[in-house]
Amino acid sequence: MASLESALNASSPALGDASSASGDEITAFVRQTEDSKAIDLAVDGAHCAACIVKIEDGLQKMDGVKRARLNLSTGRLAVSFTGPDSTAEEIVHRLDYLGYGAKPYQPETADDPRSDEEKRLLRALGVAGFASANVMLLSISVWAGEGEMSLATVTLMHWISGLIALPAVAYAGWPFFKNAMTGLRARTVNMDLPISLAVLLACGLSIYETALGHGAAYFDAAVMLLFFLLIGRFLDVRLRARAGQAARDLAALQARIAHRIAPDGSVKAIPARDVKPGDLLRIAPGDRLPVDGEVIEGRGDVDAALVTGETQPQTLEPGALVYSGMINLNAPLTVKARAARDDSLLAEISRLVEAGEQGRSRYVRYADKAARAYVPGVFAMALITLVGWLAITGDVHDAVMNSIAVLIITCPCALALVTPAVQVVASGRLYGEGVLLKSGDALERLAEAKSVVFDKTGTLTLGRPALINSEDISPRALTLAARLARGSRHPISRALAEAAGPGPLADDLQEIAGGGLTGTADGAVIQFGSSAWLGLEKQGQDTDPSVLEAWLMVEGEAPVRFVFSDSLRADALDAVTGLKAHGLPIELLSGDREAPVAAAAQALGLDRYQAGLKPQGKIDRINALKDAGDTPIMVGDGINDAPALAAAHVSVSMGSAADISRSAADLVIQGDRLAALPRAIDIAKSARARMMENFALANIYNVIAVPLAVFGLVTPLVAAIAMSASSLVVMANALRLWRA
Question: Which residue among the candidates 441, 455, 592, 666 is catalytic per the annotation?
Fold first, then answer.
């Protein structure tokens, strides 16, 4: 098995290595669909909504390309096209022309692309900070010695500043320079273009002034500018870093190996992607099903939480349908494949999650809205300043100096920090309340929420059965049943073992798939399981449908009934009450049976609920709310909730939830305290108010500072100081959230 895994890893280029893939390697990832061909590519360099538009529009103009959709969170570009497989190579070349790298998308071997970007930005931030500190020390020396320091000494100090600043600018400014060049190659402008021009012109003017011995240099302005901008860029990327983790976690759930039964009865391990409909597969206990299929032979239990979200295992018999991602618990099964891996349920759930994340990636934040008119305004102002001074004074030096001052003083440091500064402070407040903020724009979306949708099991309830009639059971009966239960992984057995505490196992213990447990204790045969398996159907007819039951049979004695139920969380009612106080309507969507869902809804005072829903059913309801103009919060915990979490306007998961649900969520409630959700909404609304105040402060700064720069009343250095001061004001206002 290990050798096969090694061979699979060796034969498939990892995401990080795919940039060197040849044309043959690219076309190897082309797959045939019903009416076209498709390929998934990992795109490098896309970081905003404008990148999505540029890539999708650029590809859809190509002959043969029918559809192109980019998920900004995962970097996955799905392209469908007609024509030969070599069209995939042309698509990659087109992306390269647009300024973006592309390679085959392989989530099972991919690393998070944003983690590398974080590291690059952090290194650039460190370099810019080091250079800023040292260059400012030299600048302060020049300012303090004005009138006493000779021009030769001042020039020497400037050259030393240049030796520190220029390499730092080249390294730390590269993220901005690269994005600016990418935009120019695609004949568009972005926020990084005026930043790059301001930094480069400040450095160029400083070299010119120092070489002529005029005694004026602005190296400190350039590195300080980069330092503050990199703070905003790093904070923004840091908060977005885990947005696409859910899709990668889902890919990890997909079995990479399947065991196919040959016509002669032999079993061979093959890559799961090579399974075809009609293949017979052997599924051993503990294995995850690689594809959707039908049980042909065998009887046993599977963990079906992926489909239903419920902890209760499903018992399978020949003819039962199974789905990829399910785990076989206790008996070998022979399964006939009904779909290829890419067409199975788990792959579909992954696509649903990515579709939801794609919708969120198109969400335009306040800063993005403000930036749309920013770039042309900055260039127009700098150009007017340059032309105006040339026309009035004819002095090229003063005209260039003043236009550079305009570029620097209008540099979007404060604008770039408006959202990240508030997000960082708010995330600290939320952490203190037991809520982890995972998505950068989740605060804005949370403040806009108009309704709440809850999952039941593991969210409003504890997500595990517990023994609820222990007072009706004798200590001897509890002890005997526990001796059987301690030998099983079944959720009911684990609940019974937990209630009874540690102790010995029964002798001759056996687990009957779909039935129960049997063994011997104290010289008697004992059995623990379902009423149907024990032949006690009549006793179980009046059972409350909202609970689970099991029976203990001891040889020669009357049967003993054990009742289990999934209890509501202690603060579930407080959370619902708090949300209703915010004026938010609440409904319950669950994959569980009608009776327990209705019981939970009644206990919490909820009028709207639906039971027996599969992942697509929850998504349909979320989308219906959104189509009606609603902006729902989805709160869930199971694997089957991940697509609905990704589709919702904003999503919340419990700290004890499945990894995929936590990855798909915007916020994670630590300690499983549901009552923290209403408080999180309060903080989100306060954060939105701080953001709007910061925009107002940034605009006031521009209204005052820009005319001063246009009329030549500030130098580039003073412009840099003013720009830095505006950034500090924005950050100070964000800190007011600590008192919210």
Answer: 455
